[in-house]
Inverse folding.
């Protein structure tokens, strides 16, 4: 007897999940004379990830450590759900087994990784080094897209598309940057599928981040030093070596700070307290987002929109900005796109009606993945680098020309198949 | 342990406390009618919400009021950054204080750094860009060294010709220099047109300061005309290790082919610095354009022979693992 065991529609191979429940299906590969009682459970080594199971993804149905099912003799497929409970530290460090309920014999087995975006300051050495290796490989790759595309996507021409401009707040600032970092993360996963983008929690000290073994140690003039074994030692941008990043704050004892300014970076609670409506939350573009960027000496590329992505810490900074949005969503239950407090602009941009810009409305497709370029009928940037949005077998979202709304319900509360990436300590609410 | 179990109640409590506290303190500031009461209220406020425009205006007026204690004025300024982010008029008012030479340095410095704290994507800074840049240029001639250096560095980061010329003048006449020579070379290197490459090359050749040489190497790492100079630095066994490490990276960026030749030579020399040889091995291991090196048996045998030595083990393992993967494809 053999069993077909799909995780996210895949019958074999490495599987990756986050906190949000993902579908599993099980069936007998061929009809047999009698039904088969099974138990689905998981096992993992100490310090590894852990998973849990649900019979359905209905609000109020709570996860359990193991689930019992009866497979129909005629081979009818059964479905259930699997969700991460504890984040993995290594690839495929969780084993999910289907056992004969009576004998305990293992009938089928898959491995899985609970892949979660974590605090960069708390990564294991293995997690850190796998991330750095993948990051460097993408930095140096000559394929398409490549890292130069990510520089162009955040340069001067792109600025008015992705940030607030004079008299025009950019509501999609958070949405666009969520897509931007997800694109980058998927490029890294092409080199190592176990990699998740870590976040720099900039309102707290992160001494493990600013070292020569990770994001670089600043010297007197601000140019970073890397250990020769650190992949980032080889970081190159537009053919040039050397990264300037000179913190204005004490990396051992402080989060991002500009001591000579009388203003401090907003804490997590202060950021979430900006308001329960998205239209209020976007004020974080100034502080803490802009403040974090500006907490280095002005020669540091991270302080300038046009050069910020030259510094590898850019994506860790923005992973934290995105995490703050995700935390706000979780705290305020802001996943329903029909609720204006989740996101204020419904429908598609209409130049004859709307004062906001194209790309702000939920049904607008997002530059550059939509290949929309500047023209007599388009106010988008002049080029659209990087191609369409990278597609995975799982999750098969967002679409290759994503619309704004696809970035909102990132844990799939209202659109069950719409799960993007999860952060540690921002749980899925069953 | 990273778990699917945050405590949403704790977060909600913290946020609710933040909101409640803010409301109370904001109202206290709104009602305060004298300096002591204003200061007491400001002590409690971490920021003024951008929606509270009456309070941010009150605070901005306090900042502009020379009759108040400087500490109170700076306190007030520190609460209105959220307003300034979107308020062109407010930014212009702060610029005026920044440029007022009758003001205390603390006030002017606070103004400058507050503007810089919002400068990343502030629409108001963009709208007031001409005033802001003019203000920075004025500060670059200020008597106060701190204001001058921040202004010059900021202007240099925007590739401002005026600032870069002043920085170069400091290299030519060190008695007028605002920055260390290493920092000056770094800032000149921000100019991507190559206008200052000759100056930087001269410094690489003549300076005995390792920091100056390292900054020069990074600044020249995309300049094909500097390839020979950088290669010479890498091969100069009398140069400091960190200078040669920077040269190794730069040569790799400039000429991958010459880098491979240099890396093979480095690896063969058991008397050379471990760090440099480790960097050479790792560079080949991690980068796809060097896959053909994996077929070089002499190089591979040398890497294998080093793998038992602790300084080389990790890099050797990286190389051999990636080599095995390459050869299997």
């Amino acid at each position: 007897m053999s069993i077909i065991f799909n995780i996210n529609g895949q019958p074999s191979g490495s599987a990756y999940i986050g906190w949000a429940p993902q579908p599993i299906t099980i069936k007998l590969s061929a009809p047999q004379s009698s039904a088969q009682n099974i138990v689905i459970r998981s096992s993992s080594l100490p310090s590894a990830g852990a998973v849990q199971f649900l019979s359905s993804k209905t609000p109020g149905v709570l996860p359990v450590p193991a689930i019992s099912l009866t497979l129909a003799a005629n081979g009818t497929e059964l479905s259930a759900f699997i969700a991460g409970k504890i984040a993995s530290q290594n690839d495929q460090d969780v084993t999910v087994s289907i056992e004969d309920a009576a004998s305990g014999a293992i009938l089928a087995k898959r491995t899985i990784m609970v892949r979660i975006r974590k605090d960069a300051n708390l990564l294991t050495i293995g997690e850190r080094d796998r991330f750095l290796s993948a990051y460097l490989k993408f930095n140096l790759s000559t394929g398409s897209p490549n890292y130069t595309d990510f520089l162009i996507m955040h340069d001067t021409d792109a600025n008015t598309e992705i940030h607030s401009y004079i008299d025009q707040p950019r509501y999609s600032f958070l949405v666009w940057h969520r897509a931007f970092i997800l694109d980058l993360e998927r490029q890294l996963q092409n080199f190592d599928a176990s990699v998740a983008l870590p976040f720099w929690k900039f309102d707290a000290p992160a001494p493990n981040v600013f070292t020569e073994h990770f994001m670089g140690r600043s010297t007197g003039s601000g140019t970073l030093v890397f250990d020769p074994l650190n992949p980032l030692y080889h970081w190159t941008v537009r053919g040039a070596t050397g990264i300037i990043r000179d913190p204005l704050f004490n990396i051992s004892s402080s989060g991002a700070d500009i001591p000579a300014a009388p203003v401090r970076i907003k804490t997590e609670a202060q950021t979430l307290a900006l308001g329960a409506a998205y239209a209020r939350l976007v004020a974080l573009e100034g502080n803490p987002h802009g403040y974090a960027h500006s907490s280095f000496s002005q020669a540091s590329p991270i302080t300038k929109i046009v050069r910020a992505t030259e510094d590898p810490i850019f994506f860790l900074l923005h992973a934290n900005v995105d995490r703050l949005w995700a935390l706000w969503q979780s705290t305020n239950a802001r996943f329903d796109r029909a609720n204006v407090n989740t996101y204020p602009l419904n429908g598609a941009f209409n130049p004859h009606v709307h004062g906001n810009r194209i790309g702000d409305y939920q049904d607008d497709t997002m530059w550059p993945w939509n290949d929309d370029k500047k023209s007599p009928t388009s106010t988008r940037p002049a080029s659209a680098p990087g191609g369409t949005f990278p597609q995975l077998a799982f999750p098969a979202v967002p679409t290759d020309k994503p619309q704004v709304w696809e970035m909102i319900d990132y844990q799939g509360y209202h659109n069950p198949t719409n799960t993007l990436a999860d952060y540690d300590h921002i749980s899925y609410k069953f | 342990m990273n778990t699917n179990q945050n405590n949403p109640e704790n977060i909600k409590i913290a946020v609710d406390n933040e909101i409640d506290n803010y409301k109370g303190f904001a109202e206290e500031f709104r009602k305060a009618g004298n300096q002591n009461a204003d200061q007491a209220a400001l002590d409690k406020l971490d920021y003024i919400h951008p929606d509270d425009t009456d309070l941010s205006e009150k605070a901005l007026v306090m900042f502009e009021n020379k009759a108040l204690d400087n500490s109170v004025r700076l306190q007030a300024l520190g609460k209105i950054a959220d307003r300034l982010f979107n308020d062109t008029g407010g930014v212009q008012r702060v610029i005026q204080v920044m440029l007022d030479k009758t003001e205390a340095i603390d006030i002017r410095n606070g103004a400058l750094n507050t503007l810089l704290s919002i400068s990343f994507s502030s629409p108001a800074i963009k709208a007031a860009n001409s005033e802001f840049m003019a203000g920075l240029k004025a500060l670059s001639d200020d008597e106060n060294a701190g204001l001058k250096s921040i202004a010059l560095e900021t202007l240099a980061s925007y590739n401002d010709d005026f600032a870069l010329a002043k920085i170069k003048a400091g290299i030519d006449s060190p008695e007028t220099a605002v920055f260390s020579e290493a920092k000056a070379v770094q800032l000149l290197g921000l100019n991507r047109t190559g206008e200052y490459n000759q100056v930087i090359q001269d410094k690489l050749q003549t300076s005995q300061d390792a920091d100056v040489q390292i900054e020069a190497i990074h600044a020249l790492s995309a300049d094909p005309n500097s390839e020979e100079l950088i290669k010479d630095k890498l091969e100069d066994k009398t140069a400091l290790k960190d200078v040669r490490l920077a040269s190794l990276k730069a040569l790799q960026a400039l000429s991958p082919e010459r880098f491979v030749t240099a890396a093979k030579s480095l690896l063969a020399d058991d008397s050379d610095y471990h760090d440099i040889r480790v960097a050479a091995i790792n560079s080949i291991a991690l980068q796809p354009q060097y896959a053909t090196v994996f077929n070089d048996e002499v190089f591979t045998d040398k890497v294998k022979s080093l793998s038992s030595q602790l300084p080389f083990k990790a890099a050797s393992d990286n190389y051999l693992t990636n080599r095995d993967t390459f050869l299997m494809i």
Q: What stands out?
A: Chain A touches chain B through 80 residues (CB under 8 Å). Chain A has a mean pLDDT of 94. The CA atoms of residues 90 and 179 of chain A lie 25 Å apart.
